[in-house]
Amino acid sequence: MGSNHNSPRAAPRVLIFFDHPEEFLPRLAARFPSAAFSACTNYDQLPARLAQVQPDVIFGFKFEPKPFPRADILASEGLRWLSVAFAGIDGVVPWDEQKLIVTNASGVAATEMGHYALAAILGLFQGFPASFAGQAARRWRYRVNRSARNATLGIVGFGRSGREIARMARAVGLRVVVCRTRPEPAEDVEAVYATNQLHEMLGLVDVTVVCAPLTGATRDLFDRAAFQAMKPGSYFINIARGAIVDEESLIEALVSGQLAGAMLDVVRTEPLPSSSPLWDAPNLLITPHSSSEYEGWVGEAATMFADNLERWMTDRPLENRVRSARGY
Question: Active site includes 112?
Answer without folding.
Answer: no
